[in-house]
């Protein structure tokens, strides 16, 4: 554990993101932007094309691209690394639309103080079907398909059977990481080594936080107020925080269909950036010391 943290700290000192990506033929990105713009009225085809997304090496079950956009820090800046995920659930349109809006704003206002990596549409197959749905093309809830914390690989499936009574919207897959979209996220998390992950969902109108202590969480991001929900086996928070000690901010927008108005989007963003600037460094120190402490106790 200790060794791993030293490695993570070293990686955190501004080294560039090394995950290999295929710079896509522009025409494929164009085609993909066209589909997104047809699906989501708030996403403009021209703005999507202009963002010049790259495509991750792993694709969705139905071979859709996983588009990504990196904003590198200024040279010689020890910038916190932020992984930003939208559209993990395909029927939460607002999470994709809002992520595109924030990404577009960042194109004009990137300060170089943070190292951002955006994946605005993690579940393209769920989103781009005629009737969008939460789960991916194989009926798996990607936010239950991560490796669960603890020794039991079957924990997610057991939880699904016992607690959700086999809710098809929350099927974790037969085994953890069975889905290429989840594999992509895990690969990206392990290679990019974010200091924090921001994941946008809807429609519960709150902010959830998985991290060292409740006190480290932002009390609010714009109109979204902190309400700690805990984690489920196979969820991103369970994997990233409990397993890897990477804090996760989950933004639950108030509506799946309707994006917050611009003023609210702006206030969420301003509060997020303030927290990243002022409080994330403390949170990371707390995480590191608790990880080191537990490593020491195990020794
Ligand atoms: Zn969701």
- The helix content is 25-40%
How many helical elements? Answer: 10
What is the CATH homologous superfamily assignment?
A: Zn peptidases
The general outline is: globular
Bound molecules: zinc ion
Residue ranges: pLDDT <50 for 5 or more in a row? 1-16, 18-24, 291-299
Sheet having the most strands: 8 strands, mixed
Quickly count the domains.
1
Strand order of the largest sheet: 1-2-3-5-4-6-10-7
Mean pLDDT: 88
Could you tell me the radius of gyration in angstroms? 18 Å
What string, H for helix and E for strand, traces the elements in order? HEHHEEEHEHHHEEEEHEHH
Please identify the structural class as seen in this structure.
Answer: alpha/beta
Q: Indicate the CATH class.
A: Alpha Beta
Write up what this structure looks like.
The protein is α/β, with parallel strands linked by helices and about 300 residues long. It has one domain: Aminopeptidase. The chain contains 10 helices and 10 strands. The strands form 2 sheets. An 8-stranded mixed sheet has the order 1-2-3-5-4-6-10-7, with helices on both faces. Strand 4 (about 80-85), helix 4 (about 95-110) and strand 5 form a beta-alpha-beta unit. Bound molecules: zinc ion. Zinc ion binds near residues 89 and 92.
């Amino acid at each position: 554990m200790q060794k791993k943290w030293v490695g993570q700290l070293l990686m955190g000192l501004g080294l560039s993101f090394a995950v290999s990506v295929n710079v896509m033929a522009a025409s494929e990105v164009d085609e993909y932007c066209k589909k997104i713009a047809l699906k989501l009225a708030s996403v403009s085809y021209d703005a999507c094309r202009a963002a010049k997304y790259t495509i991750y090496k792993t694709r969705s079950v139905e071979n859709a691209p996983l588009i990504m956009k990196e904003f590198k820090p200024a040279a010689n800046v020890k910038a916190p690394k932020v992984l930003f995920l939208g559209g993990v659930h395909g029927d939460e349109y607002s999470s994709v639309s809002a992520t595109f809006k924030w990404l577009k704003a960042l194109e004009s206002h990137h300060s170089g103080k943070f190292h951002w990596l955006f994946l605005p549409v993690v579940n393209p197959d769920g989103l781009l079907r005629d009737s969008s749905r939460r789960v991916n093309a194989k009926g798996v809830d990607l936010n239950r398909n991560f490796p669960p914390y603890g020794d039991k690989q079957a924990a997610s499936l057991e939880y699904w059977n016992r607690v959700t009574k086999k809710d098809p919207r929350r099927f974790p897959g037969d085994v953890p990481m069975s889905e290429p979209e989840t594999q992509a996220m895990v690969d990206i998390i392990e290679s990019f080594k974010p200091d924090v992950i921001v994941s946008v969902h809807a429609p519960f109108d709150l902010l959830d936080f998985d991290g060292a202590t409740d006190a480290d969480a932002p009390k609010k991001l714009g109109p979204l107020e902190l309400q700690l929900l805990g984690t489920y086996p196979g969820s991103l928070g369970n994997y990233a925080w409990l397993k890897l000690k990477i804090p996760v901010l989950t933004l639950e927008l108030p509506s799946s269909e309707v994006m917050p108005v611009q003023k609210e989007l702006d206030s969420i963003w301003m509060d997020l950036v303030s927290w990243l600037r002022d409080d994330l460094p403390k949170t990371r120190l707390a995480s590191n010391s608790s990880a080191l402490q537990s490593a020491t106790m195990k020794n």
